[in-house]
Amino acid sequence: MAAETLEFKAELKQLLHLITHSLYSDREIFLRELISNASDAINKVRFDALANADKLEGNTDWKIKLTPNAEAKTLTISDNGIGMTREEVIANLGTVAQSGTKAFLEAAKQAGKSGEAPGLIGQFGVGFYSAFMVADKVTVVTRGPGSPADGTRWESDGQGAYTLEAAEKPARGTDVILHLKDDAKDFLDQWRLRSLVRKFSDFLEHPVTMDVEKEVGEGEEKKKEVTEETLNSRKAIWLRSKSEVKPEEYDEFYKSLTHDSDGPADIIHYAAEGKTEFKVLCFVPARKPWGFDYEEPVAGLKLYVQRVLIMDRCEQLLPTYLRFVKGVVDSADLPLNVSRELLQQNPLLDVIQKSVVKNVLESLGGMKNIEFDKYLGFYKAFGTVLKEGLTRDWSNREKIADLLLFESANTEAGKFTTLAEYVGKMPEGQKDIAYLIGESAEQLRHSPYLEAFRAKGQDVLLLTDPIDEFAIPQLGEYKGKKLVAADRGEAAGGGDVPDGDKERFKALLGALKEKLPDVADVRLTNRLTESAACLVADANGVSAHMERLMERMGRDSGTAKRVLELNPNHATVEAVRTLHEKDAADVRLDLYARLLYEQAVVAEGSKVSDPVAFAKRVNDLIARDAKAGA
Ligand SMILES: Nc1ncnc2c1ncn2[C@@H]1O[C@H](COP(=O)(O)OP(=O)(O)OP(=O)(O)O)[C@@H](O)[C@H]1O
């Protein structure tokens, strides 16, 4: 049958254009990507064979073989893995399945200028196409379990189309044949290949081999002999003890696992011993992977049973709030031949998860105490995700709370405090931990709600992460101290005012309440020292910040009316009181009531319902005042 020509999908064309035209630095990573695909393919067939040994066809001498051919200027990467059917070739090598491709293209365009782009390739699951960084033509000959006639040959120059035809393939598996570009001939060099394999794939369980010519014998007997050599040491890095692993080995393993071009922020490597035994090697990335924010949140670790990869992402091993953690768990206590469904019910997985969570949280705590700058980088990337744990992982709430960072009324802008530090600095008499939620710390620093706290020498945490609105009330308390919102009725700032004031203002408060249908009540407060008025929510009501959030999401927050609090010691409030005492029917009182309310709305960072009318009211005041003063 003649070869059939098919077009790449549009996005893939764009991607290939980018790969072949702009990504030049670091192109050696193509070898890591292709070896990693070959290794995945071997793992797949080996796993399938646990249930159906016939698939193996006796071909179980697992290996990935590199064949450089100087004459033909090709480098071939062969494996005896699962192979692909014709349909699978079309699905896997003719389209980019990942939804993040568009984002990749954008990111790569940006990063292309700064030379970061190759690091991005793997992150977006386009590893195979990195072959076009070094090859101007790629041929793939592959077949799954079956007979030699079932093979498929795929070929492309990466320009927009590929050809497909049936092919004879004696053994199951895949050959990827790279027709190297003129400037990529160094990848034919055996020493270069050997050093790249050691760098990228040393820990790989399967041997990566190459035929090497060696001189053997002495004198007359001397002759050249070709032997197949294994290039990688094959020591699964997670099975070794910590002291045996070099930092650069961790680094390379991490990079092969995540495709990150930088090293990890934190390494968690231990062997659990006792009733159940397992080994864990996890990493905390130093920065957010591209796509982390818009991809569906999924967590998981690779699960090996005695070095056989059973699941690429075992969700039972990691809670979603630690989904930034990447790594491997190897357990000798799980049965090798169970189905994935049964495996997921195995109680041992919960035991392992508990242990992983404990170790990750402790390790993050250590980073915070010892390498704060590094921790800050981590926290800025993943702090929001970590906070999800406050609402989901009750048993570890306190440990997670210890990892939180906050700006506060007393910190300099851009500096942070912790709950433990806050509690340590609480002046005598302060019972609760006060916090204020809003859009930016800068705006919150000017909030009238801070006044009373400042006057008492108390600090207030300034929270600006949208999740804080849910997560912090869920936390509820820390070390026996209640967390209270500074703009709520119950907060330490609000308190009783002297009876004399209450008596003097009684009539005015009644009148204002009538004039202001938007508020639930008008009362005096000692919360304020500089401002005239503020709005507070009931202890159980919806806060102003929450209302703004709900509005933005297009939801009705079922706005509960709030309480207008007035500062009896403020000159403006006192002047309005005097005016009301003289003539309760003075028409100006309507205007003043409205403005007292509206300035409280503006001060808390919300919008007045009719900004034009508000401006007109202020202008009327200015005009009157200016006229009186002229
Ligand atoms: N040697 C191979 N044997 C069998 N299938 C392969 C082989 N190489 C690639 N594939 C198939 O092609 C798909 C696409 O490969 P590609 O490297 O582009 O992405 P990926 O491996 O899925 O993602 P990532 O590179 O992020 O791991 C693979 O998922 C696999 O199904």
UniProtKB/TrEMBL annotation:
Question: Which InterPro entries did the record assign?
Answer: HATPase_C_sf (IPR036890), Heat_shock_protein_90_CS (IPR019805), HSP90_C (IPR037196), Hsp90_fam (IPR001404), Hsp90_N (IPR020575), Ribosomal_Su5_D2-typ_SF (IPR020568)
- For binding ATP, which residues are annotated in this chain's numbering? 33, 37, 79, 84, 92, 99-100, 123-128, 174, 340
- Got a GO cellular component term for this one? cytoplasm
Q: Cite a single GO MF annotation.
A: ATP hydrolysis activity
Looking at the keywords, is Nucleotide-binding present?
Answer: yes
So which domain of life are we looking at?
Bacteria
Q: Does the keyword Mitochondrion apply?
A: no
**Which compartment or compartments is the protein found in?**
Cytoplasm
UniProtKB keywords? ATP-binding, Chaperone, Cytoplasm, Nucleotide-binding, Stress response
Pfam families, alphabetized: HATPase_c_3, HSP90
Which residues lie within the region annotated C?
549-630
Region span, A: 1-340
Family, per the entry?
Answer: Belongs to the heat shock protein 90 family.
Write out the function statement from the record: Molecular chaperone. Has ATPase activity.
Q: Which HAMAP family match?
A: HSP90 (MF_00505)
Q: How does it assemble?
A: Homodimer.
| Protein name per UniProt | Chaperone protein HtpG
Give the organism, scientific name. Answer: Gemmata obscuriglobus
- Gene name, per UniProt, is htpG
